[in-house]
Design brief:
Two copies of one chain form a homodimer. The longest helix of chain A is centred in the last third of the chain and has 17 residues, at 274-290. Chain A has nine helices and 15 strands. The first copy, chain A, is an alpha/beta fold and 340 residues long. Chain A folds into two domains: 18-190, Dihydroxyacetone kinase, domain 1 (Rossmann fold, 3-Layer(aba) Sandwich); 192-318, Hypothetical Protein Tm841, Chain: A,domain 3 (2-Layer Sandwich), CATH 3.30.1180. In chain A, the strands form three sheets. In chain A, strands 1-2-5-3-6-7 form a six-stranded mixed β-sheet, with helices on both faces. Chain A has a six-stranded mixed β-sheet with strand order 10-9-8-13-11-12. Chains A and B meet through helix 2, helix 7, helix 8, strand 12 and strand 15 of A and helix 2, helix 7, helix 8, strand 12 and strand 15 of B.
């Protein structure tokens, strides 16, 4: 351990070991839910593969925990492929995960729209096909803040990914076919939109310094989950105004039916305390009611994060009876659990 | 909204409204689990009181979310009394909560050892007694870092409080008498010890500036959940060394039986990302194994926080068959849920 790493203000040993040591902790804490294959650096559902069940695999750079490893388990993902912090996993990880969870009914890849993830999952799907495993890839691209971004052509995939993993996972658990599971995953992405705001930067273990500079009275309106720029940098405002603008940005793009039932997801980016997340949820519920919509389901907490970034994202998903029932279905993962 | 509050780097409106607006969000998000009595500023389990069941009430300053309001529900607390941020609730809140959850079998007050909380819960218990409600008070004082502190005579009550609420809540749900519920709560406190470390300060909404200053390469070893001083200020170290010292501090005081089964609770203080909390859990599991103990149950996440403080606390509870079974019993609250 060099002197330089001693001043990295984190609970780490060597920065290059953060991901694998954290995965070791996940495996030690939840042996009933997951196992970690350290050779391939993948998190696999305990007891995988489930014969006859469509497998669900996702992955991406680390630093967004509990996404994705915390969502492996009954009723959600079968495997997750964590890359290094803010770095795409490699095709070999994705192929190993695909093989590990193939129960003979095919595998769905849930891919957030970042160029590296998209390219590597595409290659992994081709390699899996060579091995006789049928793969359907589902892209999430729900972030309405910007078209194209630092590491993305088109819109970024963010909060809706959690909802896709839960709902598609429930469909697979209920015996859905490969086409059915992929279809409901795409439907969730199509009916979901997100918007994020950051108050502070994150600090990656490798860099040890803030990813971006931001003034003491400023916020990044439309931030990405790696600190990518949003729509604009502006002065902080009261939460009511920030949430109103976020809600407008999402609803003007989503255009839900009048009186729509929505799943309202208030997500902390890592460094914003829960007391503020519930305050934001209060504003969001009021905004939706003012517009004639109702939040019939919700999720409030840190689920797709950007290390210790202070910030919040809102995701709205237009529900119907099927999506509501799949959301309510039992889930047992490290980070999300009910009905079991 | 004054110009000054615009520069408070938080998602808030007026700082003086943070607690009540956050409670409104909690109520809006979890109507199946809790209701909020805004006149008395208390969080009450939906459907309270439960006839014939011992009621459990806790409370304390806000800023430690999800404690306590996030732990109200089936199998845990019947009511929580949130004070303003880092400020004790008043006896009137505690009395209102006690009355709201009294199902005729008496009420247990779970009180973290801070002078204001202790005095106000004592007065509330006397007032409840005047109203014919029998109250047993259980004090938590598990923090081995220091004797006496900024707001405490004796040891501070910290992480074990979450475990007391879960286990005593399960005992009450299973039909335990007032004496039985209080006894198991005291037993958990007696068999549990905690130790916390901070890397950064928190910022209260009222102050808008850090509670304490700390160097870029320093940690507060033994910090309290309001930023109270610990044993010493020292240079940051690798996580393995920090966790080893925390484990030593706890085990040398707890003196568990050789080969003890432990509940190992790695708690984030609010601003430390989950990737680090699992890395800390990995170190803790190794430390325990090296000492011949086994973590047969665990909890990893942000459960008793200090706003956005970067830091972590470890709580170890020496289990037995009864405590293990009560820990495993169903719980359904906003922040902790399984078995339902």
């Amino acid at each position: 351990m060099s002197v330089a790493t001693q001043t990295l203000k984190k609970f780490v040993n060597a920065p290059e070991d953060v991901v694998k040591e954290s995965l070791a902790g996940l495996a030690a804490a939840h042996p009933d839910v997951v196992r970690v294959d350290f050779e391939n650096q993948i998190v696999v559902r305990a007891g995988s593969p489930v014969a006859g069940k469509v497998g669900l695999v996702s992955g991406g750079g680390s630093g967004h925990e509990p996404l994705h490893g915390g969502f492996v388990g009954l009723g959600m993902l079968d495997a997750a492929c964590p890359g290094e912090v803010f770095t795409s996993p490699v095709p070999d990880q994705m192929l190993a995960a695909t093989k590990a969870v193939d129960g003979g009914a095919g595998v769905v890849h849930i891919v957030k729209n970042y160029t590296g993830d998209v390219l590597n999952f595409k290659l992994a799907a081709e390699l899996a096909d060579d091995d006789g495993i049928e793969v359907e890839s589902v892209l999430t691209n729900d972030d309405v803040a910007v078209e194209d971004s630092t590491w993305t052509a088109g819109r970024r995939g963010v909060g809706v990914t959690v909802l896709v993993e839960k709902i598609a996972g429930a469909r697979a658990e209920a015996g859905g076919s490969l086409a059915e599971v992929a279809a409901v995953a795409r439907r969730v992405n199509d009916r979901g939109r997100s918007f994020g705001v950051a108050l502070t930067s994150c600090v990656t273990p490798a860099a040890g310094t803030p990813t971006f500079d931001i003034g003491a009275d400023e916020m990044e309106f439309g931030v990405g989950i790696h600190g990518e720029p949003g729509r604009r940098r502006e002065k902080l405002k009261p939460a009511a105004e920030i949430v109103a603008e976020m809600t407008d940005a999402i609803l003007s793009d989503l255009s839900p039916a009048p009186g729509a039932r929505l799943l309202a997801f208030v997500n902390g980016l890592g460094g914003t305390p829960l007391i503020e997340l519930y305050l934001v949820y209060n504003e969001l519920a009021k905004q939706l009611a003012d517009r004639g919509h109702e939040a019939t389901r919700n999720l409030v907490g840190n689920y797709i994060t950007s290390l210790e970034m202070a910030g919040v994202s809102i995701t709205l998903l237009e529900l119907d009876d099927e999506l509501t029932a799949l959301w309510d279905a039992p889930v047992h993962t490290a980070a999300l659990r009910w009905g079991t």
